[in-house]
Amino acid sequence: MIDSFVSWLATTTGSIALHESLYMYAIIETLHVVAIALFVGSIAMIDLRVLGLALARVPVSQALRQILPWTVAGFIVLLLTGTLLFYAIPERTFHSPWFRAKMILLVLAGLNVWRFHRAYGLSPAGWDTGPAPARARASAMASLALWIGVIICGRFIAYNWFDCDKPQPAFISAFSACRSYTP
Amino acid sequence: MSLYDLCEAIEATAVSAALRESLWLFPVIESVHLVGLAILGGSLLMVDLRLMGAGLNRQSIAAVEHGARRWFLGALLLMLVTGSLLGISEAVKLYDRPAFFVKMIALATALVLTFTVRRALIARNSSGGPAAFAIGAASLSTWLLVAVAGRWIGFS
User: In sequence order, which residues have a C-beta less than 8 Å from that of residue A139 and are 6 or more positions away?
Assistant: First the structure.
């Protein structure tokens, strides 16, 4: 089902136009990279604040309220540009192990955000200015690790080491679902 | 010795050859460069947004700058080291890339701005205002140009 959708996506005029355009793809990718600095950069500063490694004098509630709007703005740009980048090269991307790993890390990072906000909301009671509890620190560390993983996997999508048209170890072929894709 | 000769000499070094011949080194260094971009962008943004009155406004400008400084300087160092390695591996190609020269000019401008005018303003001005807004906006747009021109090296 997904396979036929992705194959169909690749035949649409918009996808072909993006793929073949001289500048559009490069512009979208540049926007995507700049938005990483906004999104992951602002999240990292909040994580480092929770860990007590940056912005030590800023209460966590202020950091969350005044920085998160920028994080959300960065996320919207990343989601839009990321969707367009996928749309430009649907089949190869869908069958890239790096893309699949990135999506898994993205889901884990999202669950981590959800867990943090369910526990503390926008104003952590009890540790707004003091040291964060172990659970919050673990969440901040997981956040840093997961988002760095997302960046690295995202960057590696561009490399063709594990593309389906090359001989691959069985587990990579299986993970990328190479069987249903002939480049 | 012309600039082109210099680029050829750089590419003739063992480090450059090792970087070029490895399948993994360039992409790995490039990824670290990208992670550095996020940390640099985040720590820069905290201060520039505060200067522009659009961020941690309840803190003094100096307090925000102090709280972000070591991450900014650390990320800057990481960017300079990984960026130099990337450049060394393909010096001759960079000679032909206008985007690279745009990036270097923007980077020099951004560094001078950060460590002279912006630093002096942060030391004197604690609450913001039109001058702080202008410096914050100038800093943010110059660093943005560094990032955009940097990405463009790969396309041009």
Answer: A50, A112, A115, A116, A119
User: Taking CB atoms and an 8 Å limit, are B67 and A62 in contact across chains?
Assistant: no
Q: In whole angstroms, what is the distance from residue A67 CA to residue B55 CA? A: 6
pTM above 0.90, yes or no: yes
Show which residues on chain A lie within 8 Å of chain B, measured between beta carbons.
26, 29-30, 33-34, 36-38, 40-45, 48-49, 53-58, 62-63, 66-67, 70, 147-148, 151-152, 155-156, 159, 161
CA distance A106 to A87: 18
Q: What is the CA radius of gyration of chain A?
A: 19
ipTM: 0.94
Domain chopping of chain B, boundaries: 3-153
Per the structure, how many domains does chain A have? Answer: 1
Task: State how far the Cα of A86 lies from the Cα of A96, in Å rounded to an integer.
Answer: 11
Which residues constitute the domain of residue A96? 2-180
Q: pLDDT tens-digit profile of A23-41?
A: 999 999 999 999 999 999 9
Report B:48-87 residues touching A (Cβ under 8 A): 49, 55-59, 63-64, 66-68, 70-71
